[in-house]
C-alpha cells in the first residue's frame, strides 16, 4: 500500500468518526424495521487483495488510545466488532451502522465497489 493510500484511509476514518454519529443514528433508527435482505456476503481475503489493503488492517480493525487517536500499528482483528460497537457507552455507531458507514464511505471515496443495498445484501439463489 502506498503512503497516499494510507493517508487517504486515515482521513476517511477521521471523517467517518466525525460524521459517523449522525449517520449512525439515522441508520440505527431505520434498523428497527424487519430485514428484507440477508446479511452481506464478504470474502475478506479477496476484497483486501483486490483493494490492495493487505497491509492496512487497522483501517477496519482499528483501536484507539485513551485520547481517541487511532493506533495505526495496532489491530482489533482478534476481537469481535460488537465488543466495542455494541457496548453502548462509548458513543460509537452500532456494528451494523459502522459497517455501512465504513464500507459504503470507502467505496464512494474510491469510486469502486458496491454502494446499494442489493449489491451487498444479495438474496440467495434458489
TrEMBL record:
Query: What is an example of a Pfam family matching this protein?
Result: Cytochrom_CIII
- The Class III cytochrome C domain sits at 36-121
Signal peptide residues on this chain, from the entry's feature table: 1-24
User: Which InterPro entries did the record assign?
Assistant: Cyt_c_III_dom, Multihaem_cyt_sf
Key words, A-Z: Electron transport, Heme, Iron, Metal-binding, Signal, Transport
State the name under which the record lists this protein: Class III cytochrome C domain-containing protein
Which species expresses this protein natively?
Desulfoluna limicola
* Organism placement in taxonomy: Bacteria, Pseudomonadati, Thermodesulfobacteriota, Desulfobacteria, Desulfobacterales
Amino acid at each position: 500500500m502506498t503512503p497516499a493510500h494510507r493517508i487517504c484511509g486515515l482521513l476517511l476514518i477521521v471523517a467517518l468518526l466525525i460524521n459517523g454519529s449522525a449517520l449512525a443514528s439515522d441508520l440505527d433508527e431505520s434498523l428497527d424495521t424487519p430485514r428484507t435482505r440477508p446479511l452481506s456476503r464478504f470474502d475478506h481475503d479477496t476484497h483486501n487483495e483486490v483493494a490492495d489493503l493487505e497491509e492496512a488492517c487497522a483501517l477496519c480493525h482499528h483501536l484507539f488510545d485513551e485520547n481517541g487517536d487511532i493506533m495505526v500499528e495496532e489491530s482489533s482483528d482478534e476481537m469481535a466488532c460488537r465488543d466495542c460497537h455494541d457496548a453502548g457507552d462509548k458513543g460509537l455507531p452500532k456494528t451494523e451502522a459502522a459497517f455501512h458507514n465504513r464500507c459504503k464511505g470507502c467505496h464512494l471515496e474510491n469510486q469502486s465497489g458496491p454502494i446499494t443495498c442489493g449489491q451487498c445484501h444479495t438474496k440467495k439463489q434458489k
